[in-house]
Each structure stands twice: as structure tokens, then as C-alpha cells.
Automatic annotation (TrEMBL):
It comes from Myxococcus fulvus. The keyword Transport applies. One of its GO terms (molecular function) is ABC-type transporter activity. It is found in: Cell membrane; Membrane. This is Transport permease protein.
């Protein structure tokens, strides 16, 4: 009698089963963020000219402009606030802005060299790629701004008026917001020259009309409304309030200055532009 041939099939293997020891989804996303962030920071320190220029340019700008307007600047209700003291928070924000511009220009270079295409083909999500680039660029901006803040005693900043938690919060959120804005624009621009032109039209006027170079009070009606609606003014006012106290911020700012709106507005500002950057990176070409 012939033995019966078994026709039983082996149990199906689950399609999503991973090999033993394979990293999970969250680990892959974090690895993408960590690698991109570390890459930008290492590349920054391997370019000595960027490190020196990051500190020399704002110092020169602060001393030259501050000395030129020192004799003609007066603000009622802000005793002892000369122009160099008034201008110092604006230069801190300028450091964050320029750092964001020069750091996010690497998006164009990485796309041209094919690096970003290789990263986007990997297991990391588009949001992880955006967060990695944004955190790396923000870390560079914060390091440069921190170096410039070592001159704070020369600008009349004292321990009695310094609000360190507010200063850190405003700087971190401002760096993320400006980096997100730079990334969302850089993804649509093909050349570095075109990117610089766009930044000169969009981001530099935002900084000039943020209350960095002249106070909101005393400006023309239409110009004052532009400054009030400018989200970057919350960066300048937040740094000014953290360094010199609420009285100085109210004396040169809008009626909402010193009311604690800086962190919520900058948080929304950062969330919107990091989200726009993620949408831009997700665009299929």
C-alpha cells in the first residue's frame, strides 16, 4: 500500500516580520535625524572661515552701527538704554538669521550632489529628514549666537535683568522657525545665487522691520503695522526682554511687548515653517 503524500502547505510567513535584531521604525527615524544633524555640525567646524566669520561679522556690525547712532538715539521711558544696548538683541537675531541662511543653503548643495536623493530613498521618513536638517542648522545658529552673547556685559546686560529660560526658549524657537523657512524656500530653488536673492527679498526685510534697528514707537502708521504683524519682531522683543527686562521691551516695542507672547507666537511660527518644509520635501519631482 502506497504511503499517502501529504499536501499540507507550510504556514504563511507574515510580510511585516522583521529579522531578529533589526531596528524598529522609531529607531530608523531617530538614526536619520541624528546622522543628518551631526553631519551639518561637523561640516561647519571643518570650515574655519565660517567659524571666524560667524563671530567677526556681527561684532563689527554691532560696533560700527551702534557707534554711529549712539549720539542721536533716545527712548523715553528707557533710562540708560543707548543705541548699542538697543541694537544688541537685534544683532543676536541677525546672527540666527544669517546662520539659518548659510546653513540651509546646504540643502541645494546636497540635492545637486545627489546626497539628499540617497537619504530620501532610505528608510527614514521625509519628516525625519527635515527634522535632521533643521536641528543641525539650528544647532549651528545657536552656537554662533551663544558666542556673540559672550559680549553681553559690554552691552550693559546684568545678572539682575537676565532671564535665561526666556532667552534660551526664544533663541531655540527662533532658530527652528528661521531654519524651517529657509528649508521650505531652498527646496524650490535650483541655484545658490537664486536662493541668496530670495533670502534678500524675504528674510532680510523681515529682520530690518522687526524692531532690530529702530524702535516700533515713532514709526509711520503703515510701517508700524508692518512691524506689528512681522513674526520676527517677537524674536527681537523676546531677546530684549530676556536681557534687559520687560520695562525696556515695553519702552521701544508695541503695546503687547513684555506681555509674554513671545514664546507662544514663536512656537507657532516654528511649527508652521517646519511643517511647510516637510510638505516641500514631500513634493514629488
Amino acid at each position: 500500500m502506497n504511503a499517502e503524500v501529504s499536501t499540507a502547505q507550510p504556514p504563511p510567513v507574515a510580510e511585516d516580520a522583521r529579522a531578529p535584531g533589526a531596528p524598529g521604525t522609531l529607531a530608523l527615524q531617530w538614526a536619520t535625524v541624528r546622522v543628518l544633524m551631526a553631519r551639518d555640525v561637523v561640516r561647519f567646524f571643518r570650515q574655519p572661515s565660517r567659524v571666524v566669520g560667524a563671530l567677526a561679522q556681527p561684532i563689527l556690525f554691532w560696533f560700527v552701527i551702534g557707534s554711529g547712532f549712539a549720539g542721536s538715539f533716545r527712548v523715553e521711558g528707557a533710562r540708560g538704554l543707548g543705541y548699542q544696548q538697543f541694537f544688541f538683541p537685534g544683532v543676536v537675531t541677525m546672527v540666527l538669521l544669517f546662520s539659518a541662511i548659510f546653513a540651509t543653503i546646504t540643502v541645494i548643495e546636497d540635492r545637486r550632489e545627489g546626497f539628499l536623493q540617497a537619504v530620501l530613498a532610505g528608510p527614514g521618513s521625509r519628516l525625519a529628514v527635515v527634522l535632521g536638517k533643521a536641528l543641525g542648522s539650528s544647532a549651528i545658529a545657536l552656537m554662533q549666537a551663544s558666542l556673540f552673547l559672550l559680549l553681553a556685559p559690554l552691552a550693559g546686560v546684568s545678572a539682575a535683568t537676565l532671564n535665561l529660560p526666556l532667552l534660551v526658549s526664544v533663541m531655540v524657537l527662533s532658530a527652528l522657525a528661521l531654519t524651517g523657512m529657509g528649508m521650505s524656500l531652498a527646496w524650490w530653488v535650483r541655484s545658490s545665487a537664486g536662493y541668496h536673492a530670495v533670502m534678500s527679498i524675504v528674510m532680510l526685510p523681515m529682520w530690518v522691520l522687526s524692531g532690530a534697528m529702530f524702535p516700533l514707537k515713532g514709526a509711520d502708521t503703515w510701517l508700524s503695522w508692518v512691524m506689528v504683524l512681522n513674526p520676527m519682531r517677537f524674536s527681537v522683543e523676546g531677546v530684549r526682554r530676556a536681557l534687559y527686562g520687560a520695562e525696556a521691551s515695553v519702552a521701544v516695542g508695541s503695546p503687547l511687548s513684555g506681555a509674554g507672547w513671545e514664546v507662544p507666537v514663536l512656537l507657532a511660527f516654528a511649527a508652521v515653517f517646519v511643517g511647510l518644509a516637510a510638505v516641500s520635501v514631500s513634493r514629488r519631482e
